Amino acid sequence: MTDYLNEYCMHDHTCGELRSDAVGDEVTLAGWVWHNRDHGGLIFVDLRDREGYTQCVFDPDCVSEADFHTAEHLAREWVIQVRGTVRARDDEAVNPNMATGQIEILVSAITVLNTSVTPPFAIEDGIETDETTRMKWRYIDLRRPEMYDALLLRHKVTRAMRAALDERGFLEVETPILANSTPEGARDYIVPSRPNPGRFYALPQSPQQFKQMLMVGGIERYYQIARCFRDEDLRADRQPEFTQVDIEMSFVENEEVMDMMEDVMASTLEAVGVTHSFPLQRMQWKEAMDRFGCDRPDVRFGMELVDLTDIVRDCGFKVFSSVAQGGGVVKAINAKGAGDWSRGEVEKLADIAAANGAKGMAWIAFTTDGKEKSPIIKFFSDEEFAALKKAMDVEPGDLLLFAADTFDTASAVLAALRLHMAEALDIPREGHALLWVVNFPMFRLDEETGKYAAEHHPFTMIPESDWDKIETAPLECGSYSYDLVMDGFEAGGGTIRIHTADLQRRVLRRCGLTDEEIDVKFGHLIHALELGAPPHGGIALGLDRLVMLLAGKDSIRDVIAFPKTSSAADPMTGAPGEVSGRQLKEVSLRLL
RNA sequence: GGGGUGUUAGCUCAGUUGGUUAGAGCGCCGGCCUGUCACGUCGGAGGUCGUGGGUUCAAGUCCCAUACAUCCCGCCA
Predict the structure, then answer these.
(1) Do β-strands A190-192 and A200-202 pair in parallel, antiparallel, or remain unpaired?
(2) Any bridge partners for residue A372, and if so which?
(3) Which of residues 391-420 of A touch strand B (CB under 7 A)?
(4) Helix or strand holding residue A530 (H, E)
(5) A24, A99, A289, A494: which sits with the fewest CB atoms below 10 Å from its CB?
(6) Model confidence over A235-284: pLDDT tens digits?
(7) What is the dihedral of CA A82, A84, A88, A89, to 10 degrees?
(8) Left, alpha or beta for A337 (phi > 0: left; psi -120 to 50: alpha)?
(9) d(CA A367, CA A35)
């Protein structure tokens, strides 16, 4: 099965493939010394490669004195080649925890291909070494089986997606890395142009505009495993460069893109042994916000948000009633199982609420022995309290956490608390849950600038029935948009695009651009739309996040071969580094 | 830009109220060992306590600043 791995190289078997049926065979293996157990008169060496490991035995009766002496001085991570005979282990010597544990290699000759200094950390799974240390010596970190498995999984995912897209007539097309800065969106990585002093390329935040141009160019179905760059602060699920599976189709509406994506996802998940039912649930954005407080809900557990605004509108607790009467919302979650938490533990949750914009956090605890604890119960009438308990489905052992604020802030607060409580209460979240969140609002109001901005991006198609609201009631405009949500992460997002110049101009104007700015920054797009752009739309999947979730990792750094630290640095190569004065001069730059 | 946590041996960590020579496990080096597979066993080496100031008779420990890492908020159309 792995025969091809033994072509073109200096071994005829990998370290993971030999079984009892090979007993008696003369074999050659090559790999890294993993463990070396020297018993004086007998030496066991576990030889490891990416496929597994095999025990090699050095018996002084079977190897030359020189080779035995060599084996005595082997150390971890030395690179060796051994020749020997496959031998069945005695019954008591069989290692059931080892794939190759029924056999061993009785070595007849050894060649040291390279030595190694002592590695800075152990080459094995489950280490807790600091990530910076692992990144500095990433090449040995990658020797660890779990790292290899992550890269293998990533490879399988991209391979399955390529195959599925190819079967459906998609062309893989490369788009430029040296592109133009886009006026909106994330901060760009910029690259000076030597022949054009004072001018800069920007690395693409996504191939968005190029893929739309490909549709205008008649490619009809495009995809690309595309590297994207954003110069923003990092997170566990954010890197300065990351990979999108970027897809675009012509002559489609939103349902068709989602159907296509589900088919591609279905074969991708199948290829990596994950079962999930299709078709996927399609949840309206508003419903996601109402029920989960966020547009990428983890639907593997409940603890949904409950709107209590009407119940508390006239209650004696001024914080609630004034918010309710002032146009805000009062919502709560029921953290079942936290009812016996101490007051101190509960009050600490207010820090999480505050971090998400809340001014405070009310709570009511229902202890398992039937008592009620809370600083706010006294403000409610019996009827109000009964209605509240009914709405929250209260039982002994429950802890209610409240947010009274604007819809946006209350949602953010409770969404954060919901995830925190799920973690704290160890609520099971096994397997994977995919769904679509659809129909995002087209615009949102930027409170700082007072301007409207596109929620997804300004190329998103608006349902025709909402076109007249672009100028009059932008916040009520819907959009043909769809996010693929997986386990509480945005695994992908897409839209149907605007394909007529007039509508595109109206949307860009609504985002605060003048006609002149539109011509300068988006002239190429407008021209393209004027030259017979077909209806089109697409989606981009966050490959790193998808693989992270499938691999069960907490960080996309674990599924990227050479990731960067939170300051966007690479401890291995030292990037970003300084450049010489001559290099700066060549691109007409001077440092401040 | 803001907040939390952390930085002590190659790795992972402990280090009490500020008080003798800063410890442990793993790893490493040397000896012994023919059935181990986290081999065992005996011995040994290894430290600018992130960096810079300060308080003090005395600082790993207290204070200030700073760097780096990591998580979160902002940000990420």
Answers:
(1) antiparallel
(2) A366
(3) 412, 416
(4) helix A515-530
(5) A24
(6) 999 999 999 999 999 999 999 999 999 999 999 999 999 999 999 999 99
(7) -50
(8) left
(9) 54
pLDDT digits (tens, 9 = 90+) for A49-103: 999 999 999 999 999 999 999 999 999 999 999 999 999 999 999 999 999 999 9
Tens-digit pLDDT profile for residues A134-146: 999 999 999 999 9
DSSP class per residue in A60-104: TTTS-HHHHHHHHT--TT-EEEEEEEEEEPPGGG--TTSTTTTEE
Extract the tokens encoding A382. 């019996």
CA angle (A315 as vertex; A311, A316 as ends), nearest 5 = 160
**Residue A193 token pair:** 């142009």
The nucleotide minimizing the C1' distance to residue A233's CA is: B75
Exposed e or buried b for every residue in A525-556, given b needs 16+ CB within 10 A?
bbebbeeebebbbbbbbbbbbbbbbbbebebb
Per-residue pLDDT, A307: 97
Instruction: Identify the DSSP state of A464.
Output: G
pTM of the model: 0.95
**Strand-pair category, A221-229 with A103-114:** unpaired
Tokens, residue A259: 């159907």
CA distance linking residue A235 with residue A167, whole number of Å: 35
Indicate yes or no: strand B within 7 A of the C-beta of A569. yes
In angstroms, how far is the first alpha carbon of chain A from the final one?
A: 60
How many angstroms is C1' of B57 away from CA of A286?
A: 69
> Residue A377's CB: how many other CB atoms inside 10 A?
13
| Strand B, nucleotides covered by protein (CB < 7 Å) | 1-2, 10-13, 26-29, 32-40, 68-77
* Residue at token pair 């051994």: A82
Q: Which two tokens stand for residue A70?
A: 């060599």
pLDDT digits (tens, 9 = 90+) for A437-480: 999 999 998 777 778 889 889 999 999 999 999 999 999 999 99
Distances (CA, A) of A42 to A30, A56, A107: 20, 11, 11
CA distance A526 to A504: 7
List for chain A the helix, strand, coil content (%; round to 5): 35, 25, 45
